[in-house]
Amino acid sequence: MSTTHPPPNAPVLLSFANTDALVESLAEFVTKAQREAIDKKGKFTIALSGGSLPKLLRGLIGNTAVRWKNWHVYYVDERVVPLDDPDSNHRSCTEHLFSKVDIPREQIYTIDPNLLDDLDELADSYEKELIREFAQKDAARFPVFDLILLGMGPDGHTASLFPGHELLSEGDRWVAYLEDSPKPPPKRITFTYPVINHASRIAFVAAGAEKAETLRQILDHPETGLPAARVKPVFPGQLFWFSDDAATALVSYPKTPFKL
């Protein structure tokens, strides 16, 4: 009798008893990815989302294994607002993480606040930031981040890629804009799937009972096509889900014990 094995880049589901356990293990995971990247090429390229994610990175604060001087941080998506606006992902990440650690500020790559009135130019400007970092160093057509950390909304959106939106089919641009986000604020820029899916590691962080039904659809029925289910890393990239037991309560997809 033959046995069907999941593909080598199939999602790895990690479920923790509570948020504190998730935060601790997520910090270990990030520091391992960081260590391997720095040992290989002297720097760590990471892209972050907003939402609840910055708060769940608190395990990195005061962590002596983190080599902040080697971090280069980008944003998976950003709201088109001033950097100090309450809706800004950069502001959230700064308040919850960067203001509490010794990371060089010039290695945190924000949108250009002088281009907020021109979405096309704003997205193009941020794409050029990626080109400066990646285009001359990687043979791939798209940038290869060491790690991309994503959140997931109750509607299954991730980054600023929403159900039914035309950007779900964008296959050429690295960074795209939208001005009709169903979740305010309406104007945003976002990485496209090709950029996300070319990362060496991608990790969703989704906790709480309000995520349970959506997570069930994404992992048990990915054919439904929710935006988060469309994150499928290009081999040899790896995809992980860091969740708590409340979020995975309805999921049949097999859970994997956490280990480094």
TrEMBL record:
Keywords: Hydrolase. It catalyses: 6-phospho-D-glucono-1,5-lactone + H2O = 6-phospho-D-gluconate + H(+). It comes from the Eukaryota. One of its GO terms (molecular function) is 6-phosphogluconolactonase activity. Residues 18-241 form the Glucosamine/galactosamine-6-phosphate isomerase domain. Its EC number is 3.1.1.31. It is an enzyme of class 3 (hydrolase). Pfam families: Glucosamine_iso. Pathway: Carbohydrate degradation; pentose phosphate pathway; D-ribulose 5-phosphate from D-glucose 6-phosphate (oxidative stage): step 2/3. GO terms for biological process: carbohydrate metabolic process; pentose-phosphate shunt. The keyword Isomerase does not apply. Belongs to the glucosamine/galactosamine-6-phosphate isomerase family. 6-phosphogluconolactonase subfamily. Hydrolysis of 6-phosphogluconolactone to 6-phosphogluconate. This is 6-phosphogluconolactonase.
